[in-house]
Give the backbone structure.
Amino acid sequence: MVKSLLDDISDEIWFCYQCMMCKATCTIHHYTRREEDAPEPRVHLVELVRRGILDWNEISAEIILHCNLCGLCREWCASKQDISTIMTTARADVVNQGLAPDSVVSVDECLNNFKNAYGKPLDERFNGIPLAGSNINDAEVIYFIGCLSGYDRQEIPKAMIKILEAAGVKYTVLKGEEWCCGLPAYQLGLQDRAKEMSEHNAKFITATGVKTIIASCPGCARALKLEYPKWGTKLDVEVMHHTVFIKKLLDEGRLKLKKPLTKKLTYHDPCHLGRDMEIYDAPREILKQVSESEILEMFATREKALCCGSGGGYKLTNFEQASNMGSRITDEAAFVKADILVTACPLCKESFSKDASEKGLELKDIAELIIDSL
C-alpha cells in the first residue's frame, strides 16, 4: 500500500478545516460560487481522507484541483496558514495513489513527450524570437524564456532581448535544452515529473558556467530560486526576475530611458512574484522612471492583489473557467481610469488579454514599456 502524504500536513489541516474566514477572498469560489470550491470545504475534504473516513475518488480528486494556489487566502488568514501547501500535498497524494484525474494525466503526457505543458513541439520553442545575439562565450546571464513566452507570448522575450542588447549585456539561452521549469507539474501533484524537469534544466544551466539567470515568468523564477532547493535539485546560481534585473540596469546606468510615457499606468502584482517572492517595489520603481504621470494603484495591490486565475495549474485543467477570471482585475484597472494595465507575468498578460481592449485598456509587460521609452 502506498503511504499517504497527508499525515505530514496534519497540523496545517487542523488550523484550517473548521475556519471559513478566507472564503470571501478565494479566487475560484468568487467565480463559481460553489461551496466545495471554497478553501475550508476543500481542506475539510482532505482531513476526511486523512482520517480514513473518505477515500480519494474521481469527484474528490477533481475538487482539490479547484484552487489556483494563489496564496491570497494566506494573506487574509489570522495565523497565516498556507492552504496552497495543503492542496499541493493532497494532489501529490492523489497522484501517488494512482488516481490522477485525466486532465492531470494529460499534462503529464505533454511534459513527458514535449517538455512543456502545452503539447507543443520542443523544436518550435523560440521560433520567431531573434536570438542572433545569444552567445555562451563570456555571457553574463542566461535568459530563461519559459514555456508560454517561448511559444505564444513572444512579445515579452523579444522586448527583453532588446533591453539586454541596449544595455550591452552579453547573454545566452538554453535553446533546445530549455524545458519547462517544473512548477506546473509540482503544483498538480506530479512531483517526479517536476524533479525530472528541474534536474535537466539544472544540468544544462550549470554546464554553461554562467552564474546569473534572468526569467520573465515569475513561476519560472520562483521554481529556479525557491523550489529547486526544496526538490533536492542543486543549482548554484543567482536567479532574478526580469523586473529586478531591469531595475539593476537602470540603477547602474547601463540602461537609459529617453522618452517618458505620458499615459496613465496601473500595475498588477502577479501571485508568484508578489506573494511568493515578495517582489513589490522593483516594478513600481521602474514605472516611476518610465512614466511622467503618477502610477495609479488598484484597490487590491501588493500582498492583497487579486489573482488572474491562471496559476496553480488551474488553466491547464480548467481552461474555460480560468480564462474568465482575469476580468476582475481589468475591471479594477478600468475603474481607476488607467490607459495601460502593466503586467510582469506572461500568464497574467494572457489572462487579461481576453477583455482588456473591450474596456479601453492597453496591455503591456513591463519590458515592453521599457522598449517604448528607449
Summary: The chain has three domains: 6-99, 105-249, 256-373. The chain has a mean pLDDT of 92.
